[in-house]
Amino acid sequence: MVSANYQRIWHTVMAVPPGRVATYGQIADLAGLPGRARLVGKALGHAPEHLKVPWFRVLRSDGKIAFPPGSDTACQQIGLLQEEDVAVLNHRVRLKQVQWQPDLATLLQGLPY
DNA sequence: AGGTTGACGAAGT
DNA sequence: CACTTCGCCAACC
Predict the structure, then answer these.
(1) What is the reported pLDDT for A108?
(2) pLDDT-derived band of residue A112, with 50, 70 and 90 as boundaries?
(3) CATH architecture under which domain A4-99 falls
(4) Dihedral, CA atoms, A68, A69, A75, A81, nearest 10 degrees?
(5) A38 nearest nt, CA–C1'
(6) Which residues form the Methylated-DNA-[protein]-cysteine S-methyltransferase DNA binding domain (predicted)?
């Protein structure tokens, strides 16, 4: 039995389209959990593989990758982003260019709550 | 039950 | 910019 909060977070992240990114805080807000950005990170760490949650599209509020530079996870994330033509420079993405602007109506439809 | 943790964030220096 | 400090709070010991 997994927490309902985790599931809501997973589903919200799944709504982020390819080529766009979101921040931990933004996901928390959209998931109905304002102020719980840290929970988003934890939830992503426990996401079941079969859901195919695009965890790599989630960044810190300043656009930086959340993992230490050079770590395996960070390198993997950068690679996945670049495959979607999201530019990563100095461990950071320019949010102004690629940050997700969710269509709330559409989003709420796809969400299980 | 109570203490610790952490894929965060905002504000300050 | 980089770095610190502090607030946050569900999940997990």
Answers:
(1) 83
(2) confident
(3) Orthogonal Bundle (1.10)
(4) 90
(5) B8
(6) 6-85
Condensed to tens digits (0 to 9), the pLDDT of residues A19-60 reads: 999 999 999 999 999 999 999 999 999 999 999 999 999 999
Give the integer Cα–Cα distance in Å for A57 and A100: 10
Of A16, A29, A40, the closest CA to residue A106 belongs to A16
Name the residue closest to the C1' of B10 by its CA.
A61
Asked if A13 contacts A51 with a C-beta cutoff of 8 angstroms, the reply is no
Question: In chain A, what are the domain boundaries?
Answer: 4-99
Contact (Cβ atoms closer than 8 angstroms) between residue A74 and residue A68:
yes
pLDDT digit string, tens, across residues A58-87: 999 999 999 999 999 999 999 999 999 999
Task: Using the structure, give the distance in angstroms from the CA atom of A49 to the C1' atom of C7, rounded to a whole number.
Answer: 33
